[in-house]
């Protein structure tokens, strides 16, 4: 093992160096703490020091303190200090400075060698832990980078247009500290119908995000313009709009949890007739949509089971008649289950009150106001869950 002896008495230092060399150690020497510190800074492979306590220029206590507390040498150094059995005050001072072991100068050289080898085992254990820590840090950095890329990809999958014939949209999407599984989208099915949905995959992290990406793909039309929401027919008009409940039932059959995978998702799926304002919805374990009319906000709650939790479930749809200017808000539970410092939820009631007070604002300004309220309400800079709101306004005929 490579080690450093720091001792101002040359004869003592030479005798120790010779003895330890015979035990197979590579020994460097310093006459005081300052010289020893310089050697340690220039020889990063030295991780064991044997030092006297009383020396000119810089004593052993200061050398130990500099190594242990100020960490001028960026590595673990095992520090053995000379002492006598009755040097209680010096031993206490050495411990406070960070010394790892003590030995008398008069101790047999075989005992000193044994203590060195014991210290060497601790050094190697520390080095192994440090190597594992570095691997973990690299792995964590790689995972963190993957999560950031996934978050960027998630944001790119969100809608870009804000208006379809007869309908305007606005949305709010804020990711939690951990990558989540919220997803929403809207699209035109034909000249009379548009579809929109918002879903929330259980859990956090890449598995939830990957399932939300997959669901986005499944809900999107194929190259021929068909999807689970628009079924191909052999006769004119060669397609039919699938009832929102049948869409959810299809997803439930396709995305059943398997084995230890208990992943499921909640959603609201909707189809709006842009000519009549008739809205058909299916609610599957998800918070009820909020319907803002000219003078009130109505919560629609006809809940069903989350998707993928149980096989062979039947889902139902219900209808809501919109008037021109009415708005529908789909949202994830990250909105209402946002907690403040006293662990109080933001809640549906507070959400409804905010919409009522901001009725005369555009949907975009409404959502900005709600986001500001949630930021003030939330504990800390990051949300515990994804916060997603999709706002839809029917413009009427």
UniProtKB/TrEMBL annotation:
PANTHER family from the entry? STAGE II SPORULATION PROTEIN E, STAGE II SPORULATION PROTEIN E-RELATED
4-aspartylphosphate occurs at: 52
Keywords, alphabetical: Hydrolase, Phosphoprotein
Q: Per the UniProt entry, what species is this protein from, by scientific name?
A: Ferrimonas sediminum
In the record, biological process GO terms are: phosphorelay signal transduction system
GO molecular function, a single term = phosphatase activity
Domain Response regulatory: from-to ranges: 2-120
For this entry, the protein name equals Serine phosphatase RsbU, regulator of sigma subunit
Q: Does the keyword Hydrolase apply?
A: yes
């Amino acid at each position: 093992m490579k080690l450093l002896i720091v001792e101002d008495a040359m004869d003592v230092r030479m005798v120790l160096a010779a003895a330890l060399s015979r035990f197979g150690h590579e020994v460097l020497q310093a006459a005081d703490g300052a010289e020893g510190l310089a050697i340690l800074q220039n020889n990063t492979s030295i991780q064991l020091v044997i030092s006297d306590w009383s020396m000119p220029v810089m004593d052993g206590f200061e050398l130990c303190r500099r190594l242990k507390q100020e960490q001028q040498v960026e590595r673990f150094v095992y520090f053995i200090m000379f002492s006598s059995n009755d040097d209680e005050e010096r031993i206490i001072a050495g411990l406070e400075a960070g010394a790892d072991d003590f030995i008398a100068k008069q101790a047999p050289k075989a005992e000193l060698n044994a203590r060195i080898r014991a210290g060497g085992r601790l050094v190697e254990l520390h080095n192994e832990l440090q190597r594992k820590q570095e691997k973990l840090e690299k792995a964590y950095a790689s995972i963190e980078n993957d999560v950031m890329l996934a978050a960027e990809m998630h944001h790119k999958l969100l809608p870009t247009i804000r208006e379809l014939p007869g309908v305007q949209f606005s949305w709010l999407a804020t990711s939690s500290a951990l990558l989540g599984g919220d997803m929403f989208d809207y699209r035109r099915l034909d000249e009379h119908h548009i579809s929109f949905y918002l879903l929330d995959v259980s859990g956090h992290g890449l598995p939830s995000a990957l399932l939300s990406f997959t669901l986005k793909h499944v809900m999107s039309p194929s190259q021929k313009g068909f999807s689970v929401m628009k079924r191909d027919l052999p006769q004119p008009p060669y397609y039919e709009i699938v009832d929102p409940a049948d869409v959810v039932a299809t997803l439930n059959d396709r995305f059943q949890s398997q084995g230890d995978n208990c992943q499921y998702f909640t959603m609201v799926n909707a189809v709006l007739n842009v000519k009549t304002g008739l809205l058909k919805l299916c609610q599957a374990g998800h918070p009820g949509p909020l319907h803002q009319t000219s003078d009130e906000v109505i919560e629609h709650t006809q809940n069903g089971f989350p998707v993928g939790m149980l096989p062979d479930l039947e889902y139902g749809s219900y209808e809501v008649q919109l008037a021109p200017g009415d708005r529908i808000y789909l949202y994830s539970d990250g909105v209402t289950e946002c907690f403040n410092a006293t662990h109080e939820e933001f809640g549906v009631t507070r959400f409804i009150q905010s919409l009522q007070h901001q009725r005369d604002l555009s949907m975009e300004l409404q959502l900005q106001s709600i986001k500001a309220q949630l930021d003030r309400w939330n504990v800390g800079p990051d949300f515990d869950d994804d916060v997603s709101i999709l706002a839809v306004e029917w413009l009427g005929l």
